[in-house]
Design brief:
about 0% strand; mainly alpha; 3 helices
């Protein structure tokens, strides 16, 4: 799914699962595109990082 399609679905409340939400925002975090988007998207991504559904690129986790 491309960025505009994902964001349109997000805005419409049409994201069907937590996994789809996390994967979409993780893709935006990984490619750095999130930082050029509107504040509401950045805040959503940061919220997903806070709850552990996404990670900041370069962040290291221990299993």
């Amino acid at each position: 799914m491309n960025t505009s399609s994902f964001l349109s679905r997000f805005d419409a409340g049409a994201i069907s699962s937590e996994r789809e939400l996390a994967e979409g925002f993780q893709r935006l975090l990984n490619n750095g595109q999130i930082w050029s988007l509107q504040e509401r998207y950045v805040n959503a991504a940061l919220g997903l990082i806070d709850v552990g559904l996404c990670y900041a690129p370069g962040q290291i986790f221990e299993n």
